[in-house]
Structure formats: C-alpha cells, structure tokens
C-alpha cells in the first residue's frame, strides 16, 4: 500500500519512492492524452487568421483564411466560395473527429452507424409542437420528457453535447434547438410502465411499420394454451394481438348483413320522413347538431336541455333521433326538433345499457351509425354528440366559419 505522509517538524514533506514513481507515471499519461486530444483541436489565432486542423495519424494540415463566424473545418478550406455540400462534409468530419477523441463513450462504435447521439425535451412542448392526430395523455412521473435519437452526426444539434461520445443524455430547453438539423423525424408512441415490453431499434433499410413479436405458441399449434408465456419463443404476431395473447379479428364481409337488412330495406322511406324534419332543424350553413336517445337515457337528454337553457344557449338547430315513442314525446315537449325512428332501425332497446358492449349498448351504437349515414346522404353538415354531454358555448359557431377547411372532426372520449 502506497502512503504519503507529512510532518510539521523541520523535516518538511516525506514521500515514498513508490508514490513518487506513481505520480510521475500519471503525469506522463496525462501529457500523452493531452497530445492526442490536441491533435483534434482546431486552433483559432484571430478573426482573420488561418485555421489549422491536424488529425491523428495524418501529419498533413490545411490552412485557409476565415471570418470570425466561419465554421471549424477539417482538412478542407472554408472560404466564401465553399459550397453547401463542402460545409456539410466539413461538419461531418469534425463530428466524427470529436467523437473519436473521447476516451469514454455512452454508445459503442458498433451502434453509431444508426444512432449518432441522443437528446431529451419537455413532453408538453413536444406534443404541442407536433400533432400526430391522437389525443395526448397528461404527463405523469416517469413520462415527462421525450427521448430523441439522432441517426447521423449531421442530425445532431449545433449546440450541446448530444453526440454518442457524451456520457449523459442532454436536455434541450427549446424544441427548436433539439430538432434544428432533423429534416425528417419518425415518432413512435409507447404506453408507459408496461411490464415485460421491450423495444429494439435495428439499423436497416427504412420501414414505416412497427414489427410486433410476442411469446405465444406457434400459430397453428394444437396447444390449448394461448396465453403469453416465457416458455414460448418470441414470434411475429399481428397488431390485433392483445397483451394477454388474445387476438381480435376483423368481421367477415357478410356477418353484418342480417343487422343491416331492416335498415336498408326501409332506407328510402326513412329518408323521405327525415328530409322535412332535418330541413327545419338545419341552420343557414346547412349544419345541425344530432343526438340519439332512448327511454333509458332520457334523463341525460333532459339534463342536456336544462344545462343549455341555463346558459341561454340556442337549441333551435338540435335534432334528436328518438328510438322509442316515449322519448319522442319527451323531446317534442321540451321544444326540440325530433325524428321518430319507429322501426326504421329494426328492434332497438328502450333501456339504458347495463355494461359496456351489452345488447343495449351495441343496439344504440348501431343507431348512431344509421343516423350519420342518413344525414350525410341528405347532404348536411353534422355535429354528432352523445346525450351525456353539456354545453358551455354553442359549438356550431366554432365549425361555421370561413376557414373550415376540414372534412371531419373527431373527439376521443379517453378510452384508448
């Protein structure tokens, strides 16, 4: 064990020979490291001075006159006539040189061909900036930032240490800084805190699909065990496979024919009855608000009307499709435009659904599909809403404007 001791007497400082030798070796190693790193250093001697860069293993150097704001270069002159392609090549060489100069790297060279660096930005700022058409969940602990992977050294931000040689993942306060050199960006959405879920990023020809594998028995196996199990190898599955291993299947082309039989058989007669009612309810923009209700949901309809009138909101352009006579009489009594569906949709439930997906639920869901088809066939702009929604303002004013360059608006209810 090497020790270093000091004494306060007149003897001064006493150092063991082994300790002295160790310190000399460390000093020599530091000097050697400084020379190596210095070989990659760009030396500026003034705003109008020459720029000289020497790389390890190459004794040649190149000098050129540059301005105060010129980019650092490696072995190629940087003058006013330099093309954009040359500048890109210079930046690329410099990025590679800086990465090689690092003694410790977060990502090994075996990955740097397709991951040149990483960064992170605030999640709220990111999703406000980039709309991908999904309803965003609120951020939670462990899901407050977005991880960025940079595919190439030229993708790296000009400022910050996001290259593969960085020992940490830098955080950018500005999304503009983080993506300033990203001419393309691919966004992958992943549900947080899913146990036993892994992601693999593979350097390969571009694919715009996410390949999904699960630990399930072979597809045509005779095994009755279909649940996910560590005993099975990962195999390719479809996007319709649920986390528990079950698969949701697309209905066959004819499976809904019996359900549609009543509706399609009475379609012309239903359109003839609906046309004058819809014409009375539509506003000058040919738009109307549509609700579907049965007796089991009538309290929700009453609540909607009372809430709107408490705010003095106009309900003149609301049209209620009542799937039973009791609800029709109620809607008319409340002063609403109403369509008596009668038997146009086949056998419709009169009670509220007891659970998600039961017969009453699916029956009312089908009636909503029929309603939209009827009104779009007649050429109306339709704002459909459920009866459990209340208004704070008249929604039609939002859609009826000179900038309505859209075909469809859709609001998710949060049940992803």
Automatic annotation (TrEMBL):
An example Pfam family from this entry, by short name, is Nucleotid_trans
Matches recorded under InterPro entries: Nucl-diP-sugar_transferase, UDP-D-xylose:L-fucose_XylT
Q: Which GO terms describe its molecular function?
A: glycosyltransferase activity
Q: Name one GO cellular component term.
A: Golgi apparatus
User: Per the UniProt record, which residue ranges are transmembrane?
Assistant: none
Organism domain of life: Eukaryota
Residue ranges annotated for the Nucleotide-diphospho-sugar transferase domain, each copy included: 315-414
Name of the protein in question: Nucleotide-diphospho-sugar transferase domain-containing protein
């Amino acid at each position: 064990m090497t020790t270093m001791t000091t004494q306060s007497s007149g003897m001064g400082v006493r150092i063991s020979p082994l300790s002295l030798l160790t310190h000399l070796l460390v000093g020599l190693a530091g000097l050697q490291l400084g020379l190596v790193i210095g070989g990659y250093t760009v030396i500026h001697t003034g705003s109008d001075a020459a720029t000289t860069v020497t790389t390890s293993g190459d004794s040649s150097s190149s000098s050129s006159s540059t301005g105060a704001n010129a980019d650092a270069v490696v072995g190629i002159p940087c003058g006013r006539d330099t093309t954009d392609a040359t500048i890109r090549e210079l930046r690329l060489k410099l990025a590679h040189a800086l990465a090689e100069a690092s003694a410790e790297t977060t990502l090994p060279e075996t990955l740097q061909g397709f991951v040149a660096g990483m960064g992170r930005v605030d999640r709220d700022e990111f999703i406000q900036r980039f709309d991908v058409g999904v309803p965003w969940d609120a951020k939670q602990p462990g899901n407050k930032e977005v991880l960025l992977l940079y595919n190439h050294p030229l993708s790296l931000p000009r400022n910050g240490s996001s290259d593969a040689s960085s020992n940490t993942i830098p955080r950018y306060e500005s999304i503009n800084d983080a993506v300033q050199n990203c001419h393309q960006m691919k966004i992958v959405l992943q549900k947080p805190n899913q146990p036993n879920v892994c992601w693999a990023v593979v350097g390969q020809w571009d694919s715009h699909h996410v390949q999904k594998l699960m630990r399930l028995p072979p597809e045509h196996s005779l095994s009755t065990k279909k649940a996910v199990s560590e005993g099975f190898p990962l195999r390719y599955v479809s996007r319709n496979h649920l986390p528990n291993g079950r698969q949701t299947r697309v209905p066959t082309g004819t499976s809904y024919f019996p359900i549609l039989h009543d509706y399609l058989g009475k379609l012309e007669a239903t359109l003839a009855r609906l046309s004058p009612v819809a014409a009375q309810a539509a506003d000058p923009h040919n738009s109307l608000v549509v609700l579907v209700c049965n007796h089991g949901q009538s309290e929700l309809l009453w609540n909607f009307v009372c809430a709107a009138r408490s705010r003095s909101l106009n309900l003149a352009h609301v049209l209620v499709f009542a799937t039973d006579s009791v609800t029709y009489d109620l809607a008319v009594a409340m002063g609403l435009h109403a369509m008596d569906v009668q038997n146009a949709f086949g056998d419709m439930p009169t009670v509220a659904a007891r659970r998600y997906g039961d017969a009453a639920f699916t029956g009312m869901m089908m009636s909503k599909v029929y309603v939209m088809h009827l009104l779009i066939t007649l050429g109306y702009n339709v704002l459909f809403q459920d009866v459990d929604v209340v208004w704070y303002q008249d929604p039609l004013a939002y859609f009826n404007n000179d900038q309505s360059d859209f075909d469809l608006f859709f609001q998710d209810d949060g049940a992803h």
